[in-house]
């Protein structure tokens, strides 16, 4: 990243920094020199890790705290629930920032990309390390926008716990469901923070009920609000039966007091707190911690990050109820026997230092200037430096132990999702142990391989467009920029159009493509031109068809002759990859090389269907005959198979499949009718209309092609008051009339 910079700090500059004011001892200076602390001067923050005020901790506890005191957590939520603001308040109260960052002002710590600060949204998951009451917290602020769901998936793999932030006026929203399902998939324990309790329309009971009904979770009410909306003043600690009231005259929320609940002054509040406490009486701190880990219940807290209320108790809850790394059960760790095992979960590119790889250490330790082995890439690389991340500011460290997250410098080939070990022999030993364990439990070997190579599932893109450099001389620069961006963001696909020779960008949505275009301009200085945004359709066949083809070519003095007979037929299960089968008459006679050549030919033919040139899915291909002249190359076999299958696909009855989106529109009652009328024109299928406080929530399906540019239309229809969320549902067959119209448009007949 262009704004990731290290400045050399001379003694004169150091003496002016706030957190060095009282550090005059030569012993302390020598200790800090040994620690090799490098600090970016772009932002003030009140203390280094472990240095709160004048409290100087041991160097070992700063670099590698005890594993029981580590919390690797993420903050996840629907867009605009207040994730980044909550993160900013957490950093402020932990002593890491001296001023309160604000999303609307564009000066937040974790939203460090220019696009994030301009748009007020989180795009990349930024890792931040800080201390709170003796605990080391590695926190990752994740996106809430559906175009960047992969960022959430990527960081959930490395988290031990998560804080789910909710808008108390809206409860569970569309993207909340998505990230909650992702957390379920990775078995991540959670606590809930009902944010925006000060907002007009905020309802604690409504939000809790939506957690119970929509997420099917069991809420444990650890707090109750003191007032709601503009009357919100603080929270009730149900466990201690105390009120936490914030001073309304305090600018930063640091001034608050605890008061016991008394029957004389708070009879109604005491009654509610007593009832809630009775429900919790047998599930106090240790038990709450246990059920949170088991994911049988979720602790619920409340507050208002924007108004600086309720954040300190949230930090306490993170340390008390979310697990340490040693409390998470990772089955694959037993196979490494304490040797290094780490997961690369994020790659950034820095102009000065090259690729920066975020690494989560599961076992063993990592030091600078040591060689590591990448299992996925089957290559050995050297780690030159280790950095403790503070958003776009980094502190160099000499060692990284199990449970910690840090940045590595010097890895040229490691990509997102790669498993890192100490050596190739260590990987082989772990694989043998996994295989033995699998045989004992009668498991398939693929299970062991899946755990060893723990990666991130990358969704298929739904949008694409061409991208061109300002001149052909700049094409190599564009290729380099796209290669770097792909390594950072695996959901971005880049391919070459075989007909036009143009570079094609494939992404997860309009915003995704727009951000990539913007980053190429800002970070790589290239004014590129985007073609019109197009939907990624797919094709399928409706009936079985056989075809035969012969390829006969002489290259030099060598004759290449191959004849193939195959059958293509539709399959019911949805699959982007073709199902490849072999008839009994040929199954036993084919060599491994011939099989691979046949399969390569099939995959190549399915990349471009006969209608739109879109990928063909839900198809099974059976080989009935393959006659190969001696000396025929595998390339010629693949070419003949590809041509034969394309011939079969052209003869078959075909249909176009279009991406269908789950749509959720939140709109006030007065604008409901025009919104419904507009969706009807967009081939929308309304499933239900729910009530959410004073608003209506329209839930349904709509084809992606009909929803392009919808945000602008919705703003116009509702005077900017409505919001919407989109998520890919599935691919659905177009009706004949719409398909005919699309084909006419594509072929220039309309």
Strand line-up of the largest beta sheet: 18-17-23-14-15-22-19-20
Low-confidence stretches are 1-59, 109-125, 444-454
Average pLDDT: 80
Total strand segments: 37
CATH level-four homologous superfamily name of the largest domain: P-loop containing nucleotide triphosphate hydrolases
Distance between the termini: 45 Å
CATH topology name of the largest domain: Rossmann fold
Helix-strand makeup class: alpha+beta
Quaternary structure classification: single chain
Tell me the count of domains: 5
* Main β-sheet description: 8 strands, antiparallel
Number of helices: 21
Q: What radius of gyration results from the CA coordinates?
A: 29 Å
Helix content: 25-40%
What percent strand? Answer: 25-35%
Principal-axes geometry comes out as globular
The assigned CATH architecture of the largest domain is 3-Layer(aba) Sandwich
Overall CATH class of the largest domain = Alpha Beta
GO biological process, one term: mitochondrial translation
InterPro entries: EF-G-like_DII, EFG2, EFG_II, EFG_III, EFG_III/V, EFG_V, EFG_V-like, G_TR_CS
Main location: mitochondrion
GO cellular component, one term: mitochondrial matrix
Short description, anyone?
Belongs to the TRAFAC class translation factor GTPase superfamily. Classic translation factor GTPase family. EF-G/EF-2 subfamily. InterPro entries: EF-G-like_DII, EFG2, EFG_II, EFG_III, EFG_III/V, EFG_V, EFG_V-like, G_TR_CS. This protein has 750 residues and is α+β, with helices and mostly antiparallel strands.
């Amino acid at each position: 990243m262009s704004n990731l910079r290290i400045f050399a700090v001379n003694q004169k500059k150091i003496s002016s920094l706030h957190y060095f004011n009282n550090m005059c001892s030569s012993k302390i200076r020598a200790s800090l020199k040994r620690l090799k602390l490098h600090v970016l001067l772009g932002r003030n923050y009140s203390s280094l890790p472990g240095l709160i005020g004048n409290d100087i901790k041991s160097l070992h506890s700063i670099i590698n705290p005890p594993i029981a005191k580590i919390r690797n957590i993420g903050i996840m939520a629907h867009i605009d629930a207040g994730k980044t603001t909550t993160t900013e308040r957490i950093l402020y109260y932990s002593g890491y920032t001296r001023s309160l960052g604000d999303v609307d002002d564009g000066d937040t710590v974790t939203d460090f990309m220019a696009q994030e600060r301009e748009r007020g949204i989180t795009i990349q998951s930024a890792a931040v390390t800080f201390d709170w009451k003796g605990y080391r917290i590695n926190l990752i602020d994740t996106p809430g926008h559906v175009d960047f769901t992969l960022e959430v998936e990527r960081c959930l793999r490395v988290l031990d716990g998560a804080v789910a932030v909710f808008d108390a006026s809206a409860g569970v929203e569309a993207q909340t469901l998505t990230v909650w399902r992702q957390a379920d998939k990775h078995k991540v324990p959670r606590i809930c923070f009902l944010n925006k309790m000060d907002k007009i329309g905020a309802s604690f009971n409504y939000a809790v009920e939506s957690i119970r009904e929509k997420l099917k979770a069991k809420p444990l009410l650890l707090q109750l609000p003191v007032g709601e909306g503009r009357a919100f003043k603080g929270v009730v600690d149900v466990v201690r039966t105390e009120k936490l009231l914030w001073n309304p005259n305090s600018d930063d929320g640091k001034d608050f007091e605890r008061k016991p609940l008394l029957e004389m002054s708070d009879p109604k509040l005491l009654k509610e707190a007593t009832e809630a406490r009775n429900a919790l009486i047998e599930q106090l701190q240790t038990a709450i911690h246990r059920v949170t880990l088991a994911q049988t219940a979720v602790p619920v807290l409340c507050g208002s990050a924007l108004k600086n209320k309720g954040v300190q108790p949230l930090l306490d809850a993170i340390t008390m109820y979310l697990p340490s790394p040693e409390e998470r059960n990772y089955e694959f760790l037993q196979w490494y026997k304490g040797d290094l095992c780490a997961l690369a979960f994020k790659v950034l590119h820095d102009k000065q230092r090259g690729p920066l790889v975020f690494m989560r250490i599961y076992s063993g330790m990592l030091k600078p200037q040591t060689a590591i082995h990448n299992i996925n890439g089957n290559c050995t690389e050297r780690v030159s430096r280790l950095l403790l991340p503070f958003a776009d500011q980094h502190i160099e460290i000499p060692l990284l132990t199990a449970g910690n997250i840090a940045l590595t410098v010097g890895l040229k080939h490691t990509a997102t999702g790669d498993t890192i070990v100490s050596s190739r022999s260590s990987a082989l030993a772990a694989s043998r142990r996994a295989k033995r364990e699998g045989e004992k439990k009668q498991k398939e070997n693929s299970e062991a391989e899946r755990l060893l190579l723990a990666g991130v599932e990358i969704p298929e893109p739904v949008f694409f467009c061409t991208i061109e450099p300002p001149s052909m001389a700049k094409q190599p620069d564009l290729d380099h920029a796209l290669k770097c961006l792909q390594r950072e963001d695996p959901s971005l696909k880049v391919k070459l159009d075989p007909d036009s020779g143009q570079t094609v960008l494939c992404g997860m949505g309009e915003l995704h493509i727009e951000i990539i275009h913007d980053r190429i301009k800002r970070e790589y200085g290239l004014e590129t031109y985007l073609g019109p945004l197009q939907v990624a359709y797919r094709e399928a066949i409706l009936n079985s068809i056989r075809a035969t083809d012969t390829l006969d070519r002489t290259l030099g003095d060598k004759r290449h002759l191959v004849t193939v007979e195959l059958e293509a037929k539709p399959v019911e299960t949805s699959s982007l990859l073709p199902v490849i089968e072999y008839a009994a008459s040929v199954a036993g006679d084919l060599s491994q090389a011939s099989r691979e050549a046949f399969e390569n030919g099939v995959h190549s033919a399915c990349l471009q269907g006969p209608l739109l040139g879109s990928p063909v899915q839900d198809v099974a291909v059976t080989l009935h005959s393959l006659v190969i002249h001696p000396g025929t190359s595998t390339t010629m076999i693949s070419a003949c198979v590809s041509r034969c299958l394309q011939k079969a696909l052209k003869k078959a009855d075909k249909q176009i499949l279009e991406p269908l989106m789950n749509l959720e529109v939140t709109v006030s009652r007065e604008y409901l009718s025009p919104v419904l009328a507009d969706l009807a024109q967009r081939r929308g299928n309304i499933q239900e209309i729910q009530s959410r406080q004073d608003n209506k929530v329209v839930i349904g399906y709509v084809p992606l092609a009909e929803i392009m540019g919808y945000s602008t239309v919705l703003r116009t229809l509702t005077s900017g008051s409505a919001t919407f969320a989109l998520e890919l549902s599935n691919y659905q067959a177009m009706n004949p009339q719409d398909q005919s119209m699309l084909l006419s448009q594509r072929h220039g007949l309309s």
